[in-house]
TrEMBL record:
Pfam families: DUF1501. This is DUF1501 domain-containing protein. It comes from Azospirillum doebereinerae. PROSITE patterns: TAT.
Length: 419
């Protein structure tokens, strides 16, 4: 059967082998929703959580570097280190995590240094998975499902974010959004979650009202997971589109950030700008997911990493300034599936490692601190003798923001991230 250019079809997108699929809203580019609702109560600790996931395994030993550690200096060539002096020196962090070490942010992270010094940003170093995988796909799946090892993937089929959103209080028109073509595995099981990559053209379906009526008819009957998810998605898209200010010609009015904030057109900037617009719409947004790729730096790391850090830092600072009047309601957590190896390789890069670092940003954050336990970089202190060890499970950080019951079987101490 052939379809004309505006024909409406339905297709199911399976993601990462999950039993719960992603159903693309027909006729809409870069919009999808997660199916198969779940119910698992949690104690919400933050009103709106924004997750920025650095895909590829970011070298957090270059983002937050133990710049004068002798083992760090011995393991890396100058181009792969953060310096303590001279042109391009890193930005010193006052901290009590390891008082004898001069921790410094990458020199391109000046906006993050300002947030840290303003006590809005906390760093959790040597954090990550207790599982020792160095596979991108396995590590990302573990983190998005909210489990500690690969055996947990067979026991838990939903994402940790979906389990959090199942708690009463997430009944807004659009409780969850991902600024990517598809929703992540963390939202698998949340029927109302939307993937909206861009708001600049609006979210009305091609063809206007006639197409909207056809879409509504396709999903109006049935009580299955996909039918319910379809109705929720259409309602959410309509709620967002109706709140976008329009010019006289019907086009979406260009967005004007507050407080002089400037977003660049990189992946982090575009995603966080979309989230800021949604927060201001007051549509009940509880969780936003922003993917930022490009962190798998096996070769030519110095220039690539510097650009990534610059764009990420500027985007986070713009987002914080833009949402200043919402700052006590919004918390941002930045994480990656793992860190990079301590020793650089022969291609001016670093290979897959283990321990990394997480950033937590917001008006309710007890910032200006490095949190956790620093394990050291001597050979006997490294994981497998080559990688930064994990001393803080990533779930301990998330549990302080969304409640520990979201992570079945996990028991971890509190870090005191929220003021």
């Amino acid at each position: 059967m052939s379809h004309g250019p505006h024909a409406v079809t339905r297709r199911v997108l399976l993601q990462g082998g999950l039993a719960a699929g992603l159903v693309a809203v027909p006729g809409l580019r870069h919009v999808a929703y997660a199916a198969a609702p779940v119910a698992s109560p949690a104690v919400p600790a933050t009103e709106t959580l924004v997750v920025v996931f650095l895909r590829g395994g970011a070298d957090t030993l270059s983002l937050v570097a133990p710049a004068d550690d002798p083992d760090y200096l011995a393991a890396r060539v100058p181009e792969l280190r953060v310096r303590t002096d001279g042109a391009g020196a890193g930005l010193r962090l006052d901290q009590t995590l390891a008082p004898g070490i001069d921790f410094r942010l990458h020199p391109e992270a000046a906006p993050l240094a300002d947030l840290y010094n303003g006590r809005r940003l906390a760093v959790v170093h040597a954090s990550g998975l207790s599982d020792g995988t160095r596979s991108h796909f396995v590590a990302q799946d573990l983190m998005e499902r909210g489990v500690g090892d690969e055996a947990g993937l067979n026991r838990i089929g939903t994402g940790w974010a979906a389990r959090w959103l199942a708690h009463p209080g997430a009944e807004g028109a659009v409780p969850a959004v991902a600024t990517a073509p598809n929703t992540p595995a963390a939202l698998a099981g949340d029927a109302a979650a939307l993937a909206v990559a861009d708001l600049r053209q609006g979210l009305a379906p091609p063809g206007g009202d006639p197409t909207a009526r056809v879409l509504a008819a396709l999903h109006q009957s049935g009580e299955g997971a996909y039918a319910r998810a379809g109705r929720a998605a259409l309602a959410g898209l309509s709620a967002v589109d109706s709140r976008l200010p329009r010019l006289p010609d019907g086009k979406v009015e260009p967005y004007a950030p507050e407080a002089g904030a400037v977003y660049d057109d990189g992946e982090a900037g575009r995603g966080l700008q979309t989230v800021a617009r949604l927060v201001k719409m007051e549509i009940g947004l509880r969780l936003a997911w922003v993917d930022v790729g490009g962190w798998d730096t096996h070769e030519n790391q110095p220039g690539r990493f510097a650009k990534g850090v610059r764009q990420l830092s500027q985007a986070l600072a713009a987002f914080h300034a833009d949402l200043n009047r919402f700052e006590t309601r919004v918390t941002v957590v930045v994480l990656s599936e793992f860190g990079r190896r301590l020793r650089g390789n022969k291609s001016q890069g670093t290979d897959h490692g283990h321990g990394g670092a997480m950033l937590v940003l917001g008006g309710g954050v007890a910032g200006g601190r490095m949190v956790g336990r620093w394990p050291g970089l001597a050979s006997h202190q490294l994981d497998r003798g080559v990688d930064l060890a994990v001393t803080t499970d990533y779930r301990a950080v998330l549990a302080e923001l969304v409640g520990a019951s979201v992570f079945p079987g996990f028991e971890g101490g509190r870090l005191g991230l929220l003021g």
